[in-house]
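Final report, closing paragraph on structural work. Over the funding period we assembled a curated collection of sequence-structure pairs, and we close with a single example.
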Amino acid sequence: MKFIVVANVDQQREIELKTTNPDAEFVFANSFSDCRSISMYEAIFFLSRNFDAAEIASVERPIFINSVIETLEEKGLPKNVSRINGWPGFLQRSTWEIATNDKGIAGQVFKGLGWNIAFVRDEPGLVAARVISMIINEAFFALEEGVSTIDEIDLAMKLGTNYPYGPFEWLDKIGVENIYSLLKRLSIRDKRYLVSRLLEEKYFKLTSL
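Its predicted structure, as stored:
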């Protein structure tokens, strides 16, 4: 079984670190145009966020796209396309979240890979990214109120909850722009996700450079 993975170097490394069915073979590519003979592959993992929707829509093989914030419904992609979380740190998780319109096709692909999956609703943030984003936001509120320092908050979360990273470590890994964009999107319907002042300042300072 062969699978194409269109990804950057860091994403490729995370995929390579996963325990995979020995019969599965990955072919890595830097862009969709680098892919050849699509029909010979079981599925395509398109982890780059920059792609031509019309180009993807023309492919009949199962496709899994890195789309944490935008939903399948919003993108208007065909039934063979599913959403995953390709943010840094999430690809190496033991279980992947999948938003799909065809659980049968998606299930078959991941059975061949030997990877665990959880089907989730087609909503912005899926599940884990939504939770992590809120934790990061709450950490900024705590920092703003002078509860503790960045290092102490990170340490407390790792020791108290056994998280692999503290909230500010997660932010550095995932990226301020990703977290800010997801929170802004979620806050449209749910005010619990309103972005903290310090996080917003950090985002605008970064994007104004």
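The mean pLDDT is 91. Residues 8 and 20 are 19 Å apart (CA to CA). We thank the funder for supporting this effort.
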